[in-house]
Structure formats: structure tokens, C-alpha cells
Amino acid sequence: MKRGLIVAAGEGVPPRLLQALADESDLVYAVDGGYRHCQAAGIAPDLLLGDMDSLGIPPEETGVPFERLPCEKDDTDALYAARRLLAQGVERITLACALGGRLDHMLGNLGVLCFLLEQGAAGRIVDSRCCAEAFAPGEHTLKKEGYNLFSLFPLEGACEGVCIQNAKYPLERYRLVMSFPIGVSNEFLLGDARVSFESGKLLAIRLKI
Asked: Residue limits of the Thiamin pyrophosphokinase thiamin-binding domain (predicted)?
């Protein structure tokens, strides 16, 4: 499976983690000010793209291939980067430095996970404390992998028939809605948790506390 990494301009992640994510990726795209995070981690991205409003220097000075996007457009820079990676045959996309900072940008990046799910690709947002993934109906394993907690949210409308197993707070065929966030702060037990649901789109966030 071909892997891609999008480095956004949100709150940075530790350079060592960003380097590890880059090492496991076939293509690395820096989105606008995300180039500075790449610099701090010693990463030379394959492409710098965006409207360059948060880069801080002319893109020509980076020495990296770049694509300047118009300021007025329908796609966010991160969504455009995701589309471009899919066009390159990438099937699994990680977003880093995509949380914190502006709340609207963070929600937009969660929207990128929805987009990737609809395209049949795997997507995740990773930082030093959490990993966010979007799931389609079916059965899924939430790997513990050093995480302590996990939270579940419906991404569009309600998630029907939600079941949670091997967790402190199990559920059985529950209708999960955003107005009653019962899925927040569940706890892993000894191993991986199992989640299934029948309809909707589900956001799963694993956290280290």
C-alpha cells in the first residue's frame, strides 16, 4: 500500500515523530507553513503546496518543488494535497501538524478524513498524544498501541447500531449522536478494543493521557 504524509501548518509535533512518519511514507507534501515543521525535523518534502499565506518566505527560497494555489478556491490546501496524493496512487494518507491552532482549520482537516473515507482510502491524523481515524460501517479494531483512552463521535448525522467491546464502557447497538457525546473518554482494558456499527461515519480518536 502506497503511503503519503501531509504536513500541515497547525501545532507542531516532535521532530522525531515527524521524521518517523516521513520515513514510512512514499511521498511527503508540506502544506504552506507546514514547511517550517519539515525544516525543524530535517525533512525535505517532495512538494510544497498552498496559497503560501503562512509560509513566511517566498517559496522559491525553500529549494523545494512547489505549487502555488489561489487564495480563493473551494478546496482547503490540505484537501487539495489529499486529492493530489490520491491521483499519485497513494492509498493511505497521514496528516500531521493538523490539530490545534485555528479551530476551523482543525475541523476542516477532520473533513479531509471524511473525504478519504468516501474515496476508499485510509486516512488518519497523528500528533504526539492522539490518532484520529474515520471509519465506514462494519467491524473495526482500535489498537491499544500505548494509548490509554479512546473517544467516538458521529461524523455525519447519527451512527446507528454502535457496539463497543473490550473497553471499560461497553455499548450494545447504540444510536450515537453528537448532541449526547457518550462516546467520550472510554478506556482500553488489557488489549485492543473492538467497535462495530451499522450506518453513518464514525470518528475514532485514540489518546495518550
From this structure: 138-203
Q: Return the closest-CA partner of residue 163 out of 153, 155, 175.
A: 175
CA distance 190 to 111: 32
Spell out the domains of the chain, with CATH numbers in brackets: 3-128 (3.40.50.10240), 134-207 (2.60.120.320)
DSSP assignment, residue 167?
Answer: B
Residue found under cell 448532541:
179
Residue 69 Cα to chain centre, angstroms: 22
**Could you tell me the pTM of the whole model?**
0.92
Distances (CA, A) of 114 to 122, 189, 202: 10, 28, 9
Q: Which helix (H) or strand (E) holds 206?
A: strand 202-207
pLDDT for res 54: 76
* Cell numbers for 144: 491499544
